[in-house]
Design goal:
alpha+beta
Length: 76
């Protein structure tokens, strides 16, 4: 079991909420358990799911331009 707390910060845009929401939706679309909070999103699942989800979120955010992504991993 692995969990990741993820925060995406779109840069140089006024569409930040839209970019973050699309990134979260991309993870939900591949079936990863997702809990959304005001400042971050927690992903839970097996290791392969979490790495795939992080990659999906990163790709989705990158499609919209520059961003920063902060991730905290926990293995329990």
């Amino acid at each position: 079991m692995l969990s990741a707390e993820v925060a995406i910060y779109p840069e140089n845009t006024n569409r930040g909420d839209e970019i973050v929401n699309r990134s979260i939706q991309s993870v939900k679309n591949i079936g990863i358990d997702c809990n959304v909070d005001h400042m971050s999103t927690r992903l839970s699942g097996d290791e392969d799911q979490i790495w795939a989800g992080l990659q999906k979120m990163c790709q989705e955010a990158a499609n919209s331009g520059e961003f920063s992504m902060v991730v905290t991993l926990t293995n329990h």
